[in-house]
TrEMBL record:
It comes from the Bacteria. It comes from Azospirillum thermophilum. InterPro entries: Haemerythrin_Fe_BS, Hemerythrin, Hemerythrin-like, Hemerythrin-like_sf, Hemerythrin_metal-bd. Gene3D superfamilies: Hemerythrin-like. The keyword Oxidoreductase does not apply. Belongs to the hemerythrin family. SUPFAM superfamilies: Hemerythrin-like. Coiled coil: none annotated. It holds the Pfam family Hemerythrin. Residues 13-128 form the Hemerythrin-like domain. GO terms for molecular function: metal ion binding; oxygen carrier activity. This is Hemerythrin. The keyword Transport applies. Keywords: Iron, Metal-binding, Oxygen transport, Plasmid, Transport.
Length: 136
């Protein structure tokens, strides 16, 4: 897997949150496109920094939306978000702090897979609270 395009199966039925998800997927794709080599450590650091920042913005927006729409599973959902933020922070720290370029493609892939899983199965749970249809 080296590129993931957003499609309707990932829609949570809330335009602003769909837009966030699209942007985050673009960022993942950018990371994977850049590849992990000794020569582009700085580029990777910058990309991970942007991903980290935008993840925080997006999760805050999503949590606020869930709260204002009375979504009952908010605590568990927040915990899932925290796990993801920690993974991104870990990756970012690794790349920032070390001179040795570590082969972390698998981890980046894992994050991307986690993220897609999350959109399709966990975020999908709040869809009915915005007037959308229940998850399939
Ligand atoms: Fe979420």
């Amino acid at each position: 897997m080296d590129h993931v395009a957003w499609d309707e199966t990932m829609s949570v039925g809330v335009a602003i949150l769909d837009d966030d998800h699209k942007k985050l997927l673009d960022m993942f794709n950018g990371l994977l496109r850049t590849g992990i080599t000794a020569g582009n450590r700085d580029d990777l650091c910058a990309l991970l920094g942007s991903l980290r920042a935008y993840t925080t913005v997006h999760f805050a927006r999503e949590e606020e939306w869930m709260e204002s729409h009375g979504f009952p599973e908010l605590p568990a959902h927040k915990a899932a978000h925290r796990y993801f933020v920690e993974e991104v922070e870990k990756l970012h720290r690794d790349f920032e702090g070390s001179n040795t370029t570590m082969l972390r493609v698998d981890l980046i892939l894992l994050l991307k897979e986690w993220f897609i899983e999350h959109i399709q199965h966990v975020d999908a749970q709040y869809r009915p609270y915005g007037g959308g249809t229940a998850p399939h």
